Amino acid sequence: MNQANLLVEDQVQPAPACTKRALSMATRAKVHRLRQLLEQGLPLTPQPWRTLGEQCAMSEREVMALVAGWQQSGLIKRLGLVVKHRSLGITANAMVVWDVPDPQVAALGRRLAAEPAVTLCYRRPRQLPEWPYNLFCMIHGTARERVLAELEALIQRQNLSEIPHQVLFSTRAYRQHGARYLADQSVKEA
Amino acid sequence: MTSLAQGLDTQDRRLLDRYQRGLPVCPRPYAVMAEELGLTESELLERLERLQELDVLSRVGPVFDHVQAGASLLAAVSVPEEQRESYADLINQAPGVNHNYAREHHYNLWFVMTAPDEAALAQRLDVLEIKLGRPLLRLPMLEGFHIDLSFPLPWDEMEVPA
Lengths: 190, 162
Known about the structure:
A: 6 helices; 5 strands; B: Arc Repressor Mutant, subunit A
């Protein structure tokens, strides 16, 4: 991220009246604005980076340099089409939660993550006494029976019959959109 | 509900299969994508617009790493089933909520809240907890083993309405 900031600072020509501090604050504001806009998606225009740049007073080159820097640093994990799985009929989505002995949780998490049926997998803290589960994974599917069959096969393959677990199917999505870490009132909600 | 997958042609499917990642960072990315798929740039843009109108495409864009991008947390709350709708509305009104689902469990509402930093997130959750009048189960992510929601689309299964 520092590297990406440097890239932009290098390319901004300071106006004569600008002090160095004012300039970098202005740059930070522009970078912040760019990230807000990116969280809502890339414009569907022939030159989307230029369109974005126009909205936050940056050149196309600056925008592309920042985005490339964020990809390199891992801030951006992937760049492409974000699909709405529910619309396509992938509606049987199970969150499977496991109560795994702590020394085994990381290894099991990695094994589950490698299972083709598992679309998300992460460790979260137990909240005793209400919530004893420390490993979460998602299995997305088009039908409940298919998802349950996948889960049963996975339990057999990974020898998990001794590990207590629960399956929480979602029954309704009240909201589903990409994370907007920086969104504020000035950015229109979808 | 019939599946929208039935209305998508081969080119739509190739587009969705090929470009959930790897969108090129160059001045004319859609032209590059179009060329690979044997389309013109304007055909590709029209397809993307149509997929968005159909609500198959959420957006073209970056997926940020949630640890580096800011603070986020999965929370759950148990509410009376017959009042679930109104509690879900309250949750949706809170700032930073991007996912909000009903699930079959004693904890029947699950949502993800994000904020620019941990302090803001904790404050947002405290405020919401008071509004809901029920304790929130707070489940921050400690370690991600697989956290990138892009996977091969099962076109054959999606043809059949569930």
